[in-house]
Amino acid sequence: MGIEIIIKIAAIGLLTAILGQILKQMGKDEIATIATIASFIVVIIMVLNLISELFSTFQTIFNF
Amino acid sequence: MDIILKIVAVGFITCIATMIIKPIRADFSIFIAIAGGLIIIFMIVNYLTVIFATFKHLINITGVSSGIYSLLIKIIGVGYLIEFTAGICNESGNSSLGDKVLLGGKIVILTLALPIVLSILDIIMELLPA
Question: Which pTM value belongs to this model?
């Protein structure tokens, strides 16, 4: 568990923003939308992994 | 004690990353905030284990029933979790949802604490002359 996940999320955000801009300039709006949604899903899965780890940690420490 | 430097560094980096990403993609900044908060929590988890082990030792010495102790630990855990979630809800602009999360946590804590209240009542009833 490290700091790299923050950098990863920020990098994915930057990359997909640039990608979306380029795709929009090329006139492919629908692909830009799909790229945005895909990046969103990737980041949501990363954060969900973190949250599930949090829940399992809390279950062991606080014996819920 | 280098953990405090690590926590400060994670906090700063999360703040700066959120600030950078906000004008570009505002929806990702909340994810960065969640990830940063969770990383800090995972860092302090080991310390929590040490603290709770010490509490357990104290409870064993004093002879208080361990059921009350585990109930207390549970209440502390619910408090931390609810506080974290409510903070994220407030930060993402959904402050009414954060208030509801806090209310839910309070209700759960009250429900968990009811057996303690009942046991106090039992003690009082025993002390009172019949």
Answer: 0.82
